[in-house]
Amino acid sequence: MILLSFGFGYRSYSQAEQRVVSDLNQALQRTVLQNKGLWLNADTIQTYAKLQEVIGAPVSVNGSHRAFTEALSITGLKDVSTLSLHILKKNSPATVFNEIPAGCLASDTLVWLSTTADASGLTLSFRGYARCSATMLFSLSKQTIPATLLLAALLWGGFTFFYFHRHTKTNASNGQQQENFITFGNLSLSLQEACFYNEQQEKLKLTPMQYTLMEMFYLSSSHLLFKSDICQSLWPGKDNADETLYTLIRRLKPIVEDNSNLRITTDRGRAYGLEIKT
Predict the structure, then answer these.
(1) pLDDT (0 to 100) of residue 117
(2) Given 3.40.50.620, 2.40.50.140, 1.10.10.10, 1.20.1260.10, which CATH number is that of 181-276?
């Protein structure tokens, strides 16, 4: 869409240049026709011819001309336009109009060949110039469509950027949340909050010992814990913690079974396991 906008903008800019050249052409033709009695009469031509002989080089006259300025239809050109007249001898190389001054647009060259006896073959070349900046041409061009397309492209680009930025941020947040959660059955352990959530996203009310034991079950890949490992972790240095562990398991079982689809089982009296109810 941005490329389309620039394409339309360039086209409008080129059309503005063509409008300026077209206006210079019509103004030049009108000006020469209106002033041909003054510029192209025999006395003027003879004066041009004598001036050429004295100087020994082509004569050029450049400057603002009131008639030429008034003939322009584009108001912005009236203060930046000039009219150029070049007088050349017969068979002289017409190179004076080959180059257009930098920053200017030029009309076509209007050539008149003298046929008077005293100045036979003398050539008068007319051309109009307008010094147009890029800002001026831009103001003359119709940029509504390009501007609309560019605005739409910028809005779409901004929307896309913020959407993907937010989407990426959300995914990262979700990924981080997933990394901080361990789910088994319909009970989830939040490592960040150090608590358990049931299926209704309600926190389980556990004592510190109950939470620590459940966390050990969840961090075990098999969800199976030996009694000796549990006692060593929960009551290090205690000689016989079997009775204490039994009491802890007995009080924890109903909490787990009432709030999830899990249950705590005993494996031959030497280990406890956490499994999904069948």
Answers:
(1) 44
(2) 1.10.10.10
